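STRUCTURE:
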């Protein structure tokens, strides 16, 4: 075949782009230092994106970097799944075979979906919603490992043609790259990105990432056009000619080339009306045979192999080679880098030639391509064959041939975890269905059935493919790739079709899908849909769909109405799954059952079940079940106060989620880790875990969980504005329809705590009352006890607020009644029960050190330092109210509480402990005295000769307090308070309390609110 021809019309001089090239070279230097870099290069067609990438690639190669180029391949209007990544990985494999093999070891089967040369994939492997994310994570880690010792540049061109799976993989890659000497850059045609172009949302998403740089290439200036023309012509151009070319090209580099070459060769460029006509002028100057070959290649795709071209052109070999030589010599066509095929030098020329084809001519060429490829499959690479055949038959407008080919392509897309392309192809198959003759449809057979569908026990080998089968596959593919709106529309349409059929099993399956999609889209809980499915299956023998339905019902009940109904559904789901041999559904159901066992008080048995499910899922390679176990098992440990046991499991789960899970799974693990670290008093680490959850989480539920955790940490640290913002955000994420106790009760607790901290006790009562009737069910103790504690503490803090006196007794009775309904199945909730009881007594003015001693003793057995510090503060307060006998013990308790509060950064607790110590005249300082403070402004109180205790008394006198009230606040007797008042009057040289208050006011001794801060909370 024809050898590569090097003659090109591009300028040998690289013109302009100095700033852009500097940015790229700077990114290369940063990557070489171990900091991964990501860049997007946009610009209109022909502006010079490819030339910039080539120039940078050459410079990177000179610096010792390995450059892997990959382009998005367009066949008609279809992009091949993962095409640019497959091409780039092949280039890396050729350049670094040992390094790539070492990086892929143990994951060859999964990575073969992108690079089939690694190993043949197993088509029977079960698919799940984590499959695509698993492939993406492995790809990211593969690139990081390959780039560990060598700088690697991965350049992906023509992103505007990228298939959805490629876009998703690129997005994942740019969001998750953490290490490696790696540069990832991608180019796209900016003028093609209209409002509904699928690339537009990705560009908007990447713009928000600080790690991604975006370059927009502008058109050339007149001076740059002049230099470009001079380089092409190898001579200084005439000024008038430069003006003409600049005006007609408007600075577009490719059009400058075309105009310069056309003028040099004497083409009549002035007779053309549009730039599109200009592109065709040089094609039309070719011999007729070369024009014919150009038309054939234009319709074949971005690249056409020589053998395939030979079969389609139907020319004598000498004539074909001569035609190709003419087109290559005229710089219309180029040989591919591997020397095995041909492509247009610029896609704009290909598009112009393709657009010039007549409708019948286009269909005829696609038919020829399809017939040639069907007759000889080896004409194209094996990993492209099925997809290209489907595209050729579809664009040949032959439904009878297109439908089987499209269905084969959908199976291939699913095998490669390109679920977006699978969905697109299945939608195309549904579009073709009615136009295909009945005998052709009757001969079609499903390759297999998705998930638990269909439930009729049909044999795929003998049962014809049905339209509903396509809809089922499409609904699941949509769920896997995140296109839930499209999946929901398909599901609703399937249910409308099933209204006229007696097929309860298929109908039930689609109702289950509708439930899952409705819930994931935030349109409701999904229980009504599950109830419809339950009605349809009532009275039927056990089957896989029934087992799946029961598992979903149990899971829904676990989250929304935990209790006996959920427990029974989980037990039946396990039984049904075992009866029908649905192993993955059985593991899911056992996991739900294990959680319910723990919540019901069968703690060790439930934990053992969860541990066993996790181990079996890992051994049986069921990542979706294992991911759920890494979320649920440590969550249950946290729920019974065994936070330290939960942390190592969560850390192991993080590593697993990064390899096998979608971003939301990783975010859930990060969130659970943050929750356990908060309990253990590792707040700085918890803050970092929260931030990680916020970075990777995408779903509304996990983002709501993240906002709840951030609000909790902010409230404990006294940042009330941030707590308020995050509480509002969490409420927005969960929505008004979502009243699951695990979401609603923590939000209510935060609302109560925030209202109390802001001095709004009546609002705190309103928030609590909203949760009373609905959410205190069996199994909710994990979330309910902290809420009861927040409500009781708010009432105790509000005793000094007269406006809160009315209605307090009834409110406290309601809190007690709610507490009686809650279980205390673990030591942590037994401790909370004692704490709530003590807070209720405090709210009634009945503070007994014995009660608080029991609370402190209970928390001393638990690893919850913040809770222990809070209860020590309350015990010290109770001891000081009882007299002077326990002052030393109270001081030690306050010192311990202050040390923890200061370490955690818990400002409200720090202030409360410090204030109590000052009121009780206790020294909380360590043995070594503090360093002398620098001299500052003169203290007016010091000039008056008042002692520290007299200052506190004067502050309360200024607020209008009586001697008895002063005594209660400062833990002294009324007689002692009277002595302090007399001393103050003498030192201020005034005759009465009113004059003393006036002096304090005139000197500005006490700012507004100073008295309130002195009163015990």
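SEQUENCE:
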């Amino acid at each position: 075949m024809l050898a590569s021809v090097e003659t090109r019309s591009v300028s040998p001089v690289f013109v302009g782009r100095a700033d852009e090239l500097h940015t790229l070279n700077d990114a290369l230097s940063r990557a070489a230092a171990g900091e991964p870099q990501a860049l997007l290069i946009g610009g209109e067609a022909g502006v010079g994106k490819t030339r910039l990438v080539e120039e940078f690639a050459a410079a990177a190669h000179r610096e010792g970097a390995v450059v892997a180029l990959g382009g998005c391949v367009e066949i008609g209007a279809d992009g091949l799944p993962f095409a640019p990544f497959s091409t780039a990985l092949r280039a890396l494999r050729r350049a670094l075979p040992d390094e790539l093999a070492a990086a892929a070891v143990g994951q060859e089967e999964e990575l073969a979906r992108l690079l089939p040369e690694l190993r043949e994939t197993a088509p029977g492997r079960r698919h799940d919603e984590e499959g695509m994310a698993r492939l993406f994570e492995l790809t990211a880690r593969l690139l990081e490992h390959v780039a560990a010792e060598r700088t690697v540049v991965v350049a992906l061109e023509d992103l505007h043609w990228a298939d959805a799976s490629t876009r998703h993989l690129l997005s994942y890659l740019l969001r998750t790259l953490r290490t490696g000497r790696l540069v990832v850059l991608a180019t796209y045609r900016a003028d093609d990105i209209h409002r509904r172009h699928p690339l537009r949302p990705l560009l908007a998403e990447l713009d928000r990432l600080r790690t991604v740089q975006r370059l927009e290439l502008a058109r050339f200036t007149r001076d740059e056009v002049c230099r470009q023309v001079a380089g092409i012509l190898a001579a200084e151009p005439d000024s008038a000619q430069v003006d003409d070319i600049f005006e007609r090209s408007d600075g577009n580099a490719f059009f400058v080339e075309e105009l310069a070459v056309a003028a040099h060769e004497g083409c009549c460029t002035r007779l053309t009306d549009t730039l599109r006509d200009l592109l065709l002028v040089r094609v039309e100057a070719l011999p007729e045979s070369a024009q014919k070959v150009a038309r054939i290649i234009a319709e074949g795709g971005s690249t056409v192999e020589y053998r395939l071209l030979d079969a389609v052109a139907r020319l004598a070999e000498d004539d074909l080679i001569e035609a190709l030589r003419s087109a290559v010599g005229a710089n219309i066509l180029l040989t591919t880098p591997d020397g095995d095929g041909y492509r247009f030098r610029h896609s704009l020329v290909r598009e112009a030639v393709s657009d010039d084809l007549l409708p019948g001519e286009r269909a005829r060429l696609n038919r020829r391509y399809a017939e040639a490829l069907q007759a000889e499959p080896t004409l194209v690479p094996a990993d492209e064959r099925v997809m290209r055949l489907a595209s050729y038959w579809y664009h040949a407008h032959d439904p009878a041939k297109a439908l089987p080919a499209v269905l084969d392509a959908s199976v291939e897309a699913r095998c490669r975890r390109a679920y977006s392309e699978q969905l697109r192809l299945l939608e195309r198959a549904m579009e073709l269905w009615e136009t295909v003759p009945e005998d052709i449809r009757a001969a079609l057979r499903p390759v297999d059935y998705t998930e638990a569908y269909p439930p009729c026990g049909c044999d795929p080998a003998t049962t014809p493919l049905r339209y509903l089968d396509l809809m089922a596959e499409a609904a699941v593919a949509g769920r896997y790739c995140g296109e839930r709106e499209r999946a929901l529309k398909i599901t609703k349409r399937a249910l409308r079709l099933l209204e006229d059929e007696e097929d309860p099993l298929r109908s039930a399956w689609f109702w289950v899908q509708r439930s899952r999609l409705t819930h994931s889209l935030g349109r409701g809980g999904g229980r009504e849909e599950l109830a419809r499915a339950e009605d349809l299956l009532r009275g039927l023998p056990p089957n896989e769909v029934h087992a799946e339905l029961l598992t979903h019902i149990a899971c829904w009940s676990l989250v929304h109405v935990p209790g006996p109904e959920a427990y029974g559904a989980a037990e039946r789901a396990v039984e049904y799954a075992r009866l029908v041999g649905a192993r993955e559904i059985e593991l899911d159901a056992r996991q739900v059952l294990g959680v319910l066992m723990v919540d019901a008080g069968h703690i060790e048995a439930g934990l053992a079940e969860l541990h066993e499910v996790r181990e079996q899922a890992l051994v049986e390679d069921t990542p979706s079940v294992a991911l759920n176990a890494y979320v649920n098992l440590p969550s249950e440990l946290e729920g019974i106060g065994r936070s330290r046991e939960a942390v190592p499991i969560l850390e192991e789960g993080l590593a697993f989620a990064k390899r096998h899970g979608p971003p939301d799974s990783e975010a859930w693990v990060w969130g659970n880790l943050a929750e356990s670290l908060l309990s253990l008093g590792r707040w700085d680490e918890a803050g970092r875990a929260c931030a990680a959850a916020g970075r990777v989480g995408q779903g509304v539920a996990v983002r709501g969980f993240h906002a709840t955790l951030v609000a909790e940490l902010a409230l404990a640290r006294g940042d009330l504005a941030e707590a308020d913002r995050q509480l509002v955000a969490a409420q927005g994420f969960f929505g008004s329809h979502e009243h699951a106790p695990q979401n609603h009760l923590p939000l209510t607790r935060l609302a109560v705590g925030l209202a109390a901290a802001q001095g709004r006790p009546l609002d705190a009562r309103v928030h609590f009352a909203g949760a009373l009737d609905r959410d205190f069910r069996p199994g909710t103790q994990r979330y309910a006890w902290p809420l009861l504690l927040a409500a009781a503490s708010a009432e105790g803090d509000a005793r000094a607020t007269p406006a809160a006196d009315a209605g307090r007794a009834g409110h406290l009775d309601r809190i007690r009644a709610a507490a009686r309904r809650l279980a205390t199945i673990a030591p942590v909730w037994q401790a909370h029960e004692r704490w709530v009881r003590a807070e209720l007594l405090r709210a009634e003015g009945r503070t007994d050190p014995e009660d608080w001693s029991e609370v402190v003793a209970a928390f001393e057995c638990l690893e919850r330092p913040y809770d222990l510090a809070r209860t020590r503060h309350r015990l010290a307060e109770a001891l000081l109210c009882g007299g002077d006998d326990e002052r030393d013990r109270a001081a030690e308790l306050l010192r311990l509480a202050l040390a923890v509060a200061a370490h955690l950064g818990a400002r409200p607790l720090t202030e409360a402990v410090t204030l109590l110590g000052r009121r009780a005249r206790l020294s909380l300082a360590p043995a070594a005295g503090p360093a002398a403070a620098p001299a500052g402004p003169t203290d007016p109180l010091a000039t008056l000769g008042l002692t520290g205790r007299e200052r506190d008394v004067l502050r309360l006198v200024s607020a209008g307090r009586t001697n008895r009230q002063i005594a209660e606040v400062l833990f002294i007797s009324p007689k002692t308070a009277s002595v302090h008042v007399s001393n103050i009057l003498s030192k201020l040289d005034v005759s009465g309390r009113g004059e003393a208050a006036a002096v304090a006011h005139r000197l500005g001794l006490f700012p507004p609110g100073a008295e309130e801060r002195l009163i015990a909370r």
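REMARK: Residues 512 and 530 are 6 Å apart (CA to CA).
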